[in-house]
Amino acid sequence: MSRVLFLGPLIGLALLAGCGGPGAKQIGTTGAKVKGRLLDNGQPVKVRPGEDVVVSFSPPNLADVTSTRGAASINPKDGTFAFFGGSSAAGLLSAGKYKVTISSIYGSDGVDRFAGTFAHDKTPLQADVGSEPEQTFVIDIGRKTVAKQ
After folding, report:
1. In CATH, what number does 2-17+26-148 get?
2. Does the reported pTM lie above 0.70?
C-alpha cells in the first residue's frame, strides 16, 4: 500500500505530461533504457524486510513536465533497478542531466531511513544520460557517486 502512495504522484505527473493535445509528444516513449545498481560503500544496499527502496532520475527542475523521468524499486537481493519493462517503450529516458534521488518506505508510518539526504532538493547525486540505447549506472550512496558503465 505504501508503495502505491509514494508512486501515485509520479504516475500522475507522467500521465499529465502525456496529455498535451494534438501533436503533443508523450514523454518517455523514446530514449534510453536505463538500469543500474544501488550500492552502499561498494556493497549492495541492505533492504530490511518490508522496506521498499526507490531510485529516481528526475530533471533538475521538477516543474519541467516536458522532461522524462524514471522511478523504480530496487531488487532487495542485489540492489539492481530498471526504469523500463515489457515490450512497451514507456520508461525510456531522453538524453540529458538528471538528479538522482533515493528514498525508502518502511513500516506503516512510511519512515524514510535516508531522512531526506537524497531528496530532490538535497541530493548530491547526478547522472548524465547519453544517446546510447541502453545504459547502466552504479550509484553508491556511501561514496555519494554515480558512475556510468
Report:
1. 2.60.40.1120
2. yes
